[in-house]
Automatic annotation (TrEMBL):
Residue spans of the TPR repeats: 47-80, 472-505
UniProt entry keywords in alphabetical sequence: Signal, TPR repeat
Taxon lineage: Bacteria, Pseudomonadati, Bacteroidota, Bacteroidia, Bacteroidales
Signal peptide: 1-19
Name the record gives this protein: Tetratricopeptide TPR_1 repeat-containing protein
Keyword Repressor set for record: no
Signal as UniProt keyword: yes
InterPro entries in the cross-refs: TPR-like_helical_dom_sf, TPR_rpt
GO biological process terms held by the UniProt record: cell division
Superkingdom assignment: Bacteria
Native source organism of the sequence: uncultured Paludibacter sp
C-alpha cells in the first residue's frame, strides 16, 4: 500500500514537472521568453530545460548567465549535446559545432541540426546557418522545424510575407504544428483578424491544454474588442495554468470590458497594485455605484501616477463625476478641464466644467466655458440660455461685490436679449429678461421688468396650464408694480389673474384685501 501511494505521489510530481516544463518550452518556441523563463525557473530543471534557459539569456545578451545554465545542464547530463551547442555558440566555436553535427547520433537529427543553424545565425554566420538548414531538410524534408526556423529568421528581417510562406510550409507538412499556426496568427492579426482567430482555434483544437494558444486568443480578442470571446478563452487559460498576479491583471481588464465589475474587483485584489489596476478599480467601483470607495481609489490612482504614466480623458471625467457627487465642485471642475484639454473635440465637457464651476461659485470660469460653447458651430439656444442664467445667478449672489453683480446682470440682460431676437415667439428670453431687470430694479421703482413680464405672459397664456408658476410670477410683479403706481384697478386685475390660477395664493389674497381696505379708508 505504501509503495502504491509513493508511486502515485512520484507520478504526480513527475507529471506536474513535465507539464510545467512542456508549458515553458511552448512559451519558448512562441518567442515569449519572459514567460518561458518564469516557468523554467519555477520547476526542477533537467538538462534540456537548462539549455533553453541558457538560450534565453544568450538572446538577452547575458552571456555569463547563459554559460552558467549550459554548464549546469552538462552537470545534470554530461552527454547532453544541446548544452555543448550552447557553449560553442557563446565561444563562436565552429569546430565544436561541426563536430557535434558529425556525430552519428545527430547527422540526421533535425532538431539538433536546427539548433546548430541557430548557433551560427546568432553569430551572424548566415552561410553556415543556411547550410545546416539545408542539411536538416535533407535529413527530413517534412519536419516543420526547418521551416519555422527559416520563418523566424525572415520575421527578424521584417520579411513578413516570405515568413508566412515558410510557416505555411511547416503546417503543410505537419497540420498539427501548433508553433507554426501560432506564428501565422501573429502575422494575420492586423491583416485578417478572422484568419488569425481561426489559426489560434486550431492550436486549441489540437491541444486543449495549450496555454500559449489560449492566452494569445484571449489577448487578440481583447485587443480587437471581442470581449465575450476574450473572456471565454481566458477562463480556459486559467484552468490550465497556476495563475500569476500578472494573469489576474489581464483578467481584470477583460472582466471590466465584459461589464462584470464585481468579478473585476475580485481579480484586481489578486493583481499587482499598479497604476492601471487602480484605474480599473475606480471605474468598476463607480459602475457599481460604490461612490465613496471609488472616490478614495481615484485619489490613490492620481497620487501614484508617475511622469511616464499616460492619463486618458476618462480618468479625469470619472474622478470629476465622483467629486461632484461628493460636492467637491472646484476640484471636479478642474478635472473636467484636464479631460477637455486632452480632447477638445469633446465639447460636452465644457458644459460639465461650467456646471461644476457654477456650483463652486467660480462664475468667471463658468461663464468663460459657456461663452466657448456659444461660439461653437453646433451651439444651441440652450447654451446661450445657460450662459445668461449663469450671469443671472452670479448677479444675485451676495458673495460677489455689488459693482460686479451689476455687471453680471447687465451681461445677463444682453444674453437674454439675444434669445428674444433669435426666438421672438418663445417666452424664455422675455421671462428671464424680466427676472434680470427685476434684479436691476430691486425696489420696482422704475418698472424695468414690466414690459418683459407683459410680453412673456402674452406668449405663455395660450399654454397657461403648462406655465402656471411662470404666469403667477409675472402677474404678481405686474400687480405689485401697479400697486406702487396707485393704479388699484390694474393691480387688482393682475392679482385676480393669479387667483384664477391658484385661488389659495396667499400673497394675492393679502394684496387684494389690502387694496380693498385702502379703498374703504379713502371713502
Amino acid at each position: 500500500m505504501k509503495k502504491v501511494l509513493m508511486f502515485a505521489l512520484l507520478l504526480g510530481l513527475v507529471s506536474f514537472s513535465y507539464a510545467s516544463n512542456k508549458m515553458a518550452i511552448d512559451y519558448y518556441a512562441a518567442g515569449d521568453y519572459k514567460t518561458a523563463k518564469s516557468y523554467f525557473l519555477s520547476g526542477n530543471m533537467d538538462a534540456m530545460d537548462s539549455y533553453y534557459l541558457g538560450m534565453i539569456y544568450l538572446k538577452e545578451n547575458k552571456k555569463d548567465s547563459a554559460q552558467y545554465y549550459f554548464n549546469k545542464g552538462l552537470q545534470v547530463d554530461p552527454a547532453n549535446a544541446y548544452n555543448k551547442v550552447g557553449l560553442a555558440t557563446i565561444n563562436n566555436d565552429s569546430k565544436a559545432l561541426d563536430a557535434i553535427a558529425k556525430d552519428k547520433l545527430y547527422k540526421k537529427d533535425v532538431k539538433m541540426l536546427i539548433a546548430i543553424a541557430e548557433a551560427y545565425a546568432i553569430n551572424n554566420n548566415v552561410s553556415q546557418s543556411n547550410a545546416y538548414v539545408a542539411k536538416a531538410k535533407k535529413a527530413d524534408k517534412k519536419n516543420p522545424l526547418s521551416y519555422i526556423f527559416e520563418g523566424d529568421q525572415l520575421m527578424a528581417q521584417k520579411q513578413t510575407n516570405e515568413a508566412a510562406s515558410k510557416y505555411e510550409n511547416a503546417v503543410y507538412f505537419d497540420p498539427n504544428c501548433k508553433e507554426a499556426l501560432l506564428k501565422l496568427s501573429q502575422i494575420y492579426e492586423n491583416v485578417r483578424t478572422s484568419v488569425a482567430v481561426e489559426y489560434l482555434n486550431k492550436t486549441i483544437t489540437i491541444d486543449p491544454q495549450y496555454a500559449v494558444g489560449l492566452s494569445s486568443l484571449a489577448d487578440l480578442s481583447y485587443r480587437k474588442g471581442f470581449y465575450p470571446q476574450a473572456l471565454d478563452a481566458f477562463n480556459k487559460y486559467l484552468n490550465v495554468v497556476k495563475p500569476t498576479s500578472s494573469d489576474y491583471e489581464r483578467y481584470a481588464a477583460i472582466l471590466y470590458f465584459n461589464k462584470k465589475y464585481d468579478q473585476a474587483l475580485d481579480a484586481i485584489s489578486k493583481a499587482p497594485n499598479t497604476f492601471v489596476m487602480n484605474r480599473l478599480k475606480m471605474y468598476s467601483q463607480n459602475e457599481l455605484e460604490k461612490f465613496t470607495d471609488a472616490l478614495a481609489t481615484g485619489g490613490n490612482f492620481f497620487k501614484m501616477a508617475k511622469p511616464g504614466d499616460v492619463m486618458i480623458a476618462q480618468d479625469y471625467t470619472t474622478y470629476a463625476d465622483l467629486l461632484s457627487k461628493n460636492k467637491q465642485y472646484a476640484e471636479a471642475a478642474s478635472n473636467y478641464e484636464k479631460a477637455y484639454n486632452l480632447d477638445t473635440t469633446k465639447t460636452s465637457l465644457l458644459k460639465d466644467m461650467a456646471q461644476a464651476y457654477n456650483y463652486a461659485k467660480d462664475y468667471a470660469k463658468a461663464t468663460t466655458c459657456y461663452k466657448k460653447l456659444t461660439t461653437l458651430p453646433n451651439a444651441s439656444m440652450v447654451d446661450v440660455f445657460s450662459l445668461g442664467r449663469t450671469y443671472y445667478i452670479a448677479g444675485n449672489d451676495t458673495i460677489v461685490d455689488k459693482n460686479t453683480r451689476t455687471k453680471y446682470l447687465l451681461e445677463a440682460d444682453s444674453t437674454f436679449t439675444e434669445l428674444t431676437q433669435k426666438m421672438p415667439d418663445n417666452y424664455m428670453g422675455y421671462f428671464w429678461r424680466a427676472r434680470t431687470n427685476s434684479a436691476l430694479d430691486p425696489e420696482t421703482s422704475q418698472g424695468l421688468a414690466k414690459p418683459f413680464y407683459e410680453k412673456a405672459a402674452e406668449l405663455m397664456l395660450p399654454q397657461k396650464d403648462e406655465y402656471k408658476n411662470e404666469l403667477m410670477e409675472a402677474y404678481r410683479y405686474l400687480g405689485y408694480y401697479n400697486y406702487l403706481k396707485n393704479d388699484v384697478p390694474q393691480a387688482k386685475m393682475y392679482f385676480n389673474k393669479v387667483l384664477e390660477i391658484n385661488p389659495a395664493d396667499a400673497v394675492s389674497l393679502q394684496a387684494i384685501q389690502g387694496l380693498e381696505n385702502a379703498g374703504k379708508k379713502k371713502k
